[in-house]
Amino acid sequence: MKKTLFLMLLAGATSCHTLDLNPLSEASTGTFYSNQTELELAVNDLYRLAFWGNDNELFSDNEWHRGQLTNAVIGGTMNADDAGVQTFWLNSYKAIARVNSFIANKERAAANTPAAVMLRLEAEMRLIRAYQYSRLVTHFGDVPLLTDPVALEESYGIARKNQAEVLQFVFDELDFAIANLPVSYGASETKRLTKGAALAIKARTALYTGKWQLARDAAKAVMDLGVYALHTSYSQLFLKAGETSKELIISVPRDEKQQVFNGAGYVQDNISRNAGGYGAQLPTRDMMDAYECTDGKPIDESALYDPKAPFKNRDPRLTATIVEFNTQWLGYNYMPHPDSLTVFSSKENRRVPNKDTRAVAAFASFTGLLWKKGIDQTWPDRLVEDNDAIVIRYAEVLLTYAEAKMELGEIDESVLNTVNLVRARAYGVSVDQTAAYPAITVTNAAALRKVLRRERRVEFPREGLRYMDLIRWKLAEKALSTPVVGLPDPAAQNRAKWPFPGVTPLDDDGLADYSGFGTDVKALSQRSFDKSRQYLWPIPAVERRVNPNITQNAGY
User: In a designed cystine with 297, which of 126, 278, 302, 370 is the match (CB 3.0 to 4.6 A)?
Assistant: First the structure.
């Protein structure tokens, strides 16, 4: 077996997994790929979450963790030795290495594998490789472009390829997948990659890199397939009930029974203290203030907004995403008010000490907010989070189409309709019921751009899209250079201004400004983003120590 490139080997070989997540034995390149079963095992192994996923929401202004305070992205401390950067790079190139090995050796199985099966499996693999490169170029810029297994002695001469060249390779590979993958599979294989998946990845990659025409056409092709639709319930989509939804284009299966899940620590970080959690991983006030009122206006323009009743008259996605004050949640009334020392528990059928107010428990939610989106009522009892991981869904395709058309100067009825489909679903009505939701009618490009950017933010929190939106819109230098704010300490809380001291002003980019509130808000942590270097990540130092031909990005 050839020795392969060092950057691909650092993470080591792992066992294969079928799509039902059962582990299989390790394969040797020297004897593997000899029949259809082995080809399928090689492909299935790359369906694991290590090779998929969007960016960490903690890299954005949507989420904050009390224990972490800041991370390398929002703390401005990212460097070439950062463990997260190395893991991202190594997992991507590990997947690429496996695809390259598959393609180089698949003909061993030609005599006993139907040609149509081999072609379909190759298309899946080439889609996976294209996806890896699409993530690499959007985070690192120029990267090594490897399409064949590389001997160790050759690897020391590998250099970075221009981002444009890598992108062209990505789009060519995705076109191969589009041409050779089925629109759908049988009921037992609903999680496999499809033509729609390849088109959706093409649309996202093109959007992220400013290739508006490609983004428009790929998104439209997904829409024209006729196999995807918005789930009827926004809130249920992110729970077990939504795992078979027609809205999901790419999702990675996870299951407690198959030992693929997040455990007690993750669950407790995300649930209330009354329910046995820590209330540590939190929505930001910035996130909450981004939701419009039901008249379609932002909170600093709408007469419907009341900072003393901030959940009222708001886009329904707010209360589907963040736990509303004074409502039952996980068996307990959620009320972080400093004078609410006890609350009623429907689980215990009595009043109990309120551990979700910091007047009782000092480490209760510092922002006063808790996540609701994607959190199942069984979490506190099971201490397990095993929801399928959503990578891309149909709502993103619709908003990609609208944004690409808008940037091309092609604002027409189809643009408004795609945005309104997403907005109407949030209100639980059909798109033609325009009196029942704030339908978008604006056709001015600048005004529509503000609408679309706000729409993406409130549609996709916790789905890992916000960070790359901030990067591509060049807003990270603003959004990630402001404090994370929370409620004042209980002794300093002005009860007459509970929970929020006034209407938060929003700038033209929809970003909140809390500088005028003084001690009525508490600065929890200071974000910092270095615009001179952080729009690209550093090439991992370990790669450059082995191969000095791999150059570093500016500022690192």
Answer: 302
CA 324 to chain centre: 23
In this predicted model, what pLDDT tens digit does every residue of 311-363 receive, in sequence order?
999 999 999 999 999 999 999 999 999 999 999 999 999 999 999 999 999 99
Assign 3-state DSSP to the chain and report helix, strand, coil percentages, each to 5: 40, 10, 50
For the stretch 292-308, pLDDT in tens is 999 999 999 999 999 99
The pairing of strands 281-283 and 63-65 is antiparallel
Closest CA to 90 of 132, 137, 53: 132
From 6-20, 378-392, 401-415, 418-432, the region with the lowest mean pLDDT: 6-20
The pLDDT of residue 366 is above 60: yes
The whole-number pLDDT of residue 28 equals: 59
CA–CA dist 42, 420 (Å, integer): 42
CA of residue 134 relative to chain centroid, distance: 15
| Cα–Cα–Cα angle for 175, 177, 179, rounded to 5 degrees | 70
Integer Cα distance of 543 and 556 in angstroms: 14
The two beta strands, 327-329 and 522-526, are unpaired
With cut-offs at 50, 70 and 90, classify the pLDDT of residue 5: very low
Taking CA atoms, 182 is separated from 93, 119, 189, 196, 197, in Å, by 26, 11, 12, 9, 10
Cα-to-chain-centroid distance, residue 205: 14
Share the mean pLDDT of the chain.
Answer: 93
- 310-to-99, 127, 489, 497, 504 alpha-carbon distances in Å: 50, 44, 20, 12, 11
In whole angstroms, how far apart are CA 73 and each of 82, 118, 299, 535?
10, 41, 29, 10
Query: What are φ and ψ of residue 397, in 5° steps?
Result: -60, -45
| Phi, psi (deg, nearest 5) at residue 390 | -85, 125
Q: Give SS3 for 511.
A: coil
**How far are the Cα atoms of 394, 427, 430 from residue 434, in angstroms, in the given order?**
21, 11, 8
Residue pLDDT, tens place only, 169-181: 999 999 999 999 9
Distances in Å between the Cα of 230 and the Cα atoms of 73, 456, 506 are 33, 15, 30
Give the pLDDT of residue 29: 64
Residue type, 516: G
pLDDT of residue 172: 98
Least Cα distance to 537 among 144, 136, 162, 161 occurs for 136
